[in-house]
Amino acid sequence: MKKTYRIDVDCANCANKMEDAARRTEGVQSCTVNFMTLKMNVEFAEGHDPRAVMEQVRTNCKRVEDDCEVYL
Amino acid sequence: MNHKQKKMLARILVTAALLISLHFLPVTGWLRFGCYMVPYLVIGYDILRKAARGVRNRQVFDENFLMAVATVGAIALALYEGSGDYTEAVAVMLFYQVGEWFQSYAVGRSRRNISELMDIRPDYANVEQDGKLTRVDPDEVGIGTVIVVQPGEKVPIDGVVTQGSSALNTAALTGESLPRDVEAGDEVVSGCVNMTGVLKIRTTKEFGESTVSKILDLVENASSRKSRSEDFISRFARIYTPAVCGAALALAVLPPLVRLAVLDLPAGWETWVYRALTFLVASCPCALVISIPLSFFAGIGGASKAGVLVKGSNYLEALSQTKFVVFDKTGTLTQGVFQVSGIHHSRLEDEKLLEYAALAESASSHPISRSLQRAYGKELDRGRVAEIREIGGEGVTASVDGHPVAAGNGKLMDRLGIPYIPCHGVGTVIHMAIDGQYMGHILISDVVKPTAREAVRQLKAAGVRKTVMLTGDAKRVADQVAADLGVDEVHSQLLPADKVEKVEALLAAKQGREKLAFVGDGINDAPVLSRADIGIAMGALGSDAAIEAADVVLMDDDPLKIAKAIRISRKCLGIVYQNIVFAIGVKLACLVLVALGLAGMWLAIFADVGVMILAVLNAIRALFVKKL
User: Fold this and answer.
1) Digit-coded pLDDT (tens) for B71-125
2) Which of B133, B148, B434, B520 has the fewest CB atoms in 10 Å of its CB?
3) Dihedral of the alpha carbons of B498, B503, B509, B512, in degrees to the nearest 10
4) If pLDDT is split at 50, 70 and 90, which confidence band does B344 have?
């Protein structure tokens, strides 16, 4: 399953870091962060609840980039 | 400017004012230190906080960390040496923030600019209820509802005009400024602006399925697919910062040790620590990291202004490396509007033969079938036709009024074992057999698009090595069109599957980074569109299949846009490479100068912010594509 989330982040490099962090989150099959449109496209792995996974994605993103937000 | 940017601007101005007034204030010692700490903290508190959090989260190597270490280090050195020169640290922080602010402002502006370019989202639809017009959300309008579009309003949903006539402005969709005239019975696509008359439109789709929604969806998701250049930059940034930090540490420690141990000189710790700190300031990779995605974003935005939708940065990049362009003939180089230009050797009345042909082909939406139906001109009674079988690349067999009818090319006749008379005219020939008897043939010819010749010439001028035309048509027709247009290679009488094969052969023959683009009209060529490096669909206005299957979508059906799309991509990629070379080049030069002690922290920060501003301005240039 694929979903798109709105995000807020200030710099392009930080967006790259968020992408990395999201990719490493369990239950995320693939993820691209688009800095220019401030969107995060996430593809979830089978058998994972998107809500729970996204909570974790947000936590992981905040860990690598303090000043960011993922709107769930 | 948003709230964050305004706040930042205020901080920048306050700090600049404080710094200037402190310059004229004759204070010394700890008081001086205290005075300078005020502007330093005003401008840099968030950087320090972020750096601290980064360290706590074990994300050490980022710009915030670099800036924090460099400025705190500079202040510590000033204290240690007793020079009282704190201006440098504050100024470095100030310029860094000016750069960040500018970057955020420029990105915000181009974000807005580009979304304005695609300002085609309709806000409402007018539905007539009890003789009164009510505005409703386009999402709530069902299929078959009659909506009213007044002059100046956007057509919100795809449909058919039932009443009224008007001129539609399609510029937002196609980049074409010439208005399109519509009247009752015509199909209209959403996103056009009604210019002159009131139109009543019966919707044929839901809003979510309408052209405008599909296009918006596509544009918003474009540039999520990253190009190789962007990947390169992310990878580069990942190893670059730790590498620079390591180099800075080495610069601070190694030379003094060497001087002490080998050269027997005083260590000069202050000099080398200062140089290492300056090295850190000069090393920020921001210019690179921001300008590359911004260039692609602006390039995609500029292209969509010209009526060329590109589905991702990777396709824009591939487009610039296009060396082979393969065209489908019908609907791409020719208008795909076939006209019956002759009926030969008919053993029935011409009218009757045409009637059988039109009925047999009545289920097909192929341009040829439609032209037969148009030439017949009367209402078709589909009840008279049964057992329709379409045979790809050959034709149709059906039973009309109980008579078996075969309508198709020579291959079909050969397979059915019916002898036929070949045609001398140039065009598509439909041989007709009724009850197993040859009944003559109908000649249909297609018209070459007026700009097709120029389009092929411009592609050559844009550096395309080879143009190839593929068609299911007869060899003679294909050869004549190809010679007329100046296409290098032509393959005719191809079935849809053959086209894939031909494209695969061409793909195998190309070398290195060369890319192959296939241009089709999205009808029947989805497999080829997806097999080519870049699938370009044209005339997409109103064809959802084309929008979905292709990587690049030309909104109108002008083949000149192919060359234009390539030129846009070249310009954009040119800017990307300029920025990469310029930013990395200046950065390396700075790092060398700093390491040799030829440049101080001031120059380092100016170089950093200056390069970033120039790179961003250069990136925005990708948005301007009109004169290409």
Assistant:
1) 898 888 888 887 778 888 898 899 889 988 888 888 888 777 777 766 677 888 8
2) B133
3) -160
4) confident
Report yes or no: B237 at the A interface, CB cutoff 8 Å.
Answer: yes
Predicted TM-score (pTM) of the model is 0.77
Closest chain A residue by Cα to residue B49: A66
pLDDT at B563: 92
**Amino acid A12: pLDDT:** 77
Measure A18 CA to nearest chain B CA, in Å.
12
Residue of A nearest to B107 (CA): A36
B164-199: burial string, b at 16+ Cβ within 10 Å, e else: bebbbbbebbbbbeebbebeeeeebbbbbbbeeeeb
Q: What is the pLDDT, as a whole number, of residue B325?
A: 93
Alpha-carbon distance B557 to nearest alpha carbon in chain A (angstroms) = 29
Supply φ then ψ for residue A32, to 5 degrees. Answer: -125, 140
pLDDT the model gives residue B542: 57
* Rg of chain A (C-alpha set): 11
Q: Does B47 touch chain A (CB under 8 A)?
A: no
- Diameter of chain A by CA atoms? 33
ipTM of the complex: 0.81
Rounded-to-5 percentages of helix, strand, coil across chain A: 40, 35, 30
- The mean pLDDT of chain B is 84
Which residue in the set A11, A32, A37 is minimally distant from B220, CB to CB? A37
The beta-carbon neighbor of A63 closest among B50, B57, B110 is B57
Per annotation, catalytic residue among B328, B446, B521, B533: B328
d(CA B115, CA B120): 9
Measure the CA–CA gap between B483 and B256, rounded to whole angstroms: 75
